[in-house]
Design goal:
The chain is of the alpha+beta class and 114 residues long. It contains two helices and five strands, in the order E-E-H-E-E-H-E. The chain has a five-stranded mixed β-sheet, with helices on one face. The N terminus is likely disordered.
Length: 114
Amino acid sequence: MSNKNKKRDGIVFSTEPDFEYQGFEESGEETLEPEQQKLRVMLERKGRGGKDVTIVHNFIGSQDDKEELTKKLKTTCGTGGSAKDGEIVIQGDQRDKVVKYLLDKGYKHTKRGN
């Protein structure tokens, strides 16, 4: 593994001759099983220049798992989106497609909001 791929968390240089960077463990949450997730799917317009976006709230898990779910939802809906600020954001009013996909994948407690 090259040093380019390591995140240094602010450490640039050490004067210690025997210093070896130990790093910090990523403190990602453990991802709950789909049947334990209580996801809420909502439509949002505020602060988005009048554009509709579908928001999936309450996903509990690692950022990698959230990004993987986001990728699958974007493919299912045929649109763009992102996973940021603790939410999954899908462009457009895709609530029906998102809820159907989540229910088909075992997310039992998924509910559609406004």
